[in-house]
């Protein structure tokens, strides 16, 4: 069971859990703030819409297509 | 760094897996790329809350065991860098792949149409919710409304319910007559009939569509029009998708001719571009059985086994019949073009409202004057929506096809000037 950090909060999740799912397990599931200031959450779940892009270990990645790994650092407001 | 493939396959869904399996006995060096963590595509998506059928497990294991098939998960295509060469990127690195033959098995995505409130957290695609739940998204004890069109609504409802959600409504826009007519044809495809019965939901309503997602910070409820009457349902999630549209952009960028929104192919699954094949839902929506047989034909044709390929034609024709019945039954009603209000965002990347698009001449003009389609999704959501709403044909995408890291784009400098 990998343990990761989401916006500073530690969370342990089941093997194979996506980062998008982990964000909903840890909090409100939101991933980014739009150009006009709306909070957004994953929409398509399959790598198309880009609503789920977050910072993972300092790199911008899609939360819906990234699996949680031990020690991962995820930031939604970076 | 660069690599070579005799046969390069993009997409490891049913079509891509079967293409690899069919091409492998030739001994060709095969590379299979997919942007997801696991092979299986949309229908056989793996995850902590997913159950992958035995047939799919076996296919995945079979392909995994082939020595001449190299699978690169979580890898996406960034650019076409020369004749028969693509720049690709995974989580760690970017590299170039040269190929002799390319098979596009890029599948389909949901048609997501804008309606008031659709940007609220809690609103997802219909297949989108299914995919997120399979990946571990918690829905236990949440009230879920599913809306839009097509058999995917029932599949999504079943996955949500299986994971503890309370499905309080399933709104299908097609008429009762159309859905009943489709169901009456299902005995021609017996295993599909069994699937449909297994998925039936007592909250399923035809002639119904979403009007508005309600809430301020996040979704609190949904307003639906059911048989002409407005109803409101309180819910934590709304999963709304209006059927599937082919992922034809990569093919389009490589010069392939389109047939409607799909990649045009001949009897060998060959596109208009030499050495370039396409199979599965990027050539038109038709379900996994059609994708599988098209993948087989493309894989065999790609390694020159035309005799073998032609043996699968009757099976393909059978599933094409199913696809036709499906597409006919779930054709979208014209009133769905009127869901957006002037202030409803159509482009979610650049926050462009409907009012900025209505009245523009074409997609190009709309893009230039409003930035619609210029954001991170490259118009894959709003371009398809605008095509449905206004009839604008989106232009072929320009590289990078998806947001890429600077280090990857630097690989472009390795290529000699044309
Ligand atoms: C969200 C969703 C859920 C669905 N759920 C069901 C279901 O429950 N039951 C059912 O019968 N049918 C379902 N379908 C229909 C399904 O699409 C088909 O039945 C079947 O999966 C089609 O197979 P395919 O091989 O053509 O494409 P897909 O299964 O879509 O596979 C295509 C693969 O290619 C990848 N890809 C696309 N472009 C690129 C690129 N540029 N670079 C790298 N990889 C790429 C995709 O991520 C995907 O993994 C679903 C469709 C969608 C969109
Ligand atoms: S939810 Fe759409 S790209 Fe991840």
From TrEMBL, chain A:
What molecular function terms (GO) are annotated for this protein? Answer: iron-sulfur cluster binding; oxidoreductase activity
Q: Per UniProt, what is one Pfam family of this protein? A: Fer2_4
The 2Fe-2S ferredoxin-type domain extends over 2-78
InterPro entries tied to this protein? 2Fe-2S-bd_N, 2Fe-2S_ferredoxin-like_sf, 2Fe-2S_ferredoxin-type
Q: Which UniProt keywords apply?
A: Oxidoreductase
**Name the UniProt record assigns to this protein:** 2Fe-2S iron-sulfur cluster protein
In its UniProt entry, the species of origin is given as Pseudomonas putida
Query: Lineage in the entry?
Result: Bacteria, Pseudomonadati, Pseudomonadota, Gammaproteobacteria, Pseudomonadales
């Amino acid at each position: 069971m990998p343990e990761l950090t989401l916006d500073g909060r530690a969370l342990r999740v089941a093997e194979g859990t996506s980062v998008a799912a982990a964000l909903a397990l840890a909090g409100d599931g939101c991933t980014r703030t739009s150009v006009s200031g709306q909070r957004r959450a994953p929409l398509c779940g399959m790598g198309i819409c880009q609503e789920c892009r977050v910072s993972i270990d300092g790199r911008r990645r899609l939360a819906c297509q990234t699996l949680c790994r031990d020690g991962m650092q995820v930031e939604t407001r970076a | 760094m660069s690599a070579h493939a005799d046969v390069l396959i993009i997409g490891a869904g049913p079509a891509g897996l079967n293409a690899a399996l069919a091409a492998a006995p030739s001994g060709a060096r095969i590379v299979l790329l997919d942007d997801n963590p696991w092979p299986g595509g949309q229908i056989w998506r793996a995850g902590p809350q997913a159950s992958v059928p035995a047939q799919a497990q076996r296919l995945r294991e079979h392909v995994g065991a082939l020595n001449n098939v190299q699978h690169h998960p979580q890898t996406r295509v960034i650019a076409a860098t020369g004749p028969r060469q693509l720049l690709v990127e995974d989580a760690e690195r970017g590299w170039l792949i040269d190929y002799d033959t390319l098979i596009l098995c890029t599948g389909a995505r949901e048609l997501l149409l804008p309606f008031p409130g659709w940007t609220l957290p809690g609103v997802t695609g219909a297949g989108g919710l299914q995919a997120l739940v399979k990946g571990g998204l918690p829905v236990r004890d949440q009230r879920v409304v599913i809306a839009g069109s097509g058999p995917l609504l029932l599949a999504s409802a079943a996955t949500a319910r299986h994971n503890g959600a309370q499905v309080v409504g399933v709104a299908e826009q097609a008429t009762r007559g159309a859905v009943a007519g489709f169901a009456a044809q299902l005995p021609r495809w017996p295993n599909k009939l069994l699937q449909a019965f297994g998925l039936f939901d007592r909250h399923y309503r035809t002639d119904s569509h979403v009007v508005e997602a309600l809430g301020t910070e996040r979704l609190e409820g949904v307003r639906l029009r059911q048989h002409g009457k407005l109803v409101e349902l309180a819910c934590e999630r709304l999963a709304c998708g209006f059927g599937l549209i082919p992922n034809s952009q990569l093919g389009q960028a490589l010069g392939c001719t389109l047939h409607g929104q799909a990649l045009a192919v001949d009897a060998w699954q060959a596109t208009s571009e030499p050495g370039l094949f396409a199979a599965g839902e990027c050539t038109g929506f038709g379900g996994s059985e059609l994708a599988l047989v098209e993948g087989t034909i493309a894989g065999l044709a790609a390694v020159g086994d035309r005799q073998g390929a032609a043996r699968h034609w009757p099976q393909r024709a059978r599933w094409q019949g199913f696809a036709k019945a499906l597409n006919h039954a779930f054709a979208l009603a014209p009133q769905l073009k009127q869901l957006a209000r002037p202030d409803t965002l159509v482009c979610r990347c650049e926050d462009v409202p409907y009012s900025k698009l209505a009245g523009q001449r074409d997609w190009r003009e709309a893009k230039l004057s409003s930035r619609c389609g210029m954001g991170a999704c490259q118009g894959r959501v709003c371009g398809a929506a605008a095509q449905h709403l206004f009839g604008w044909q989106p232009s072929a995408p320009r590289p990078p096809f998806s947001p890429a890291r600077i280090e990857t784009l630097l690989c472009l400098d390795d290529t000699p000037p044309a």
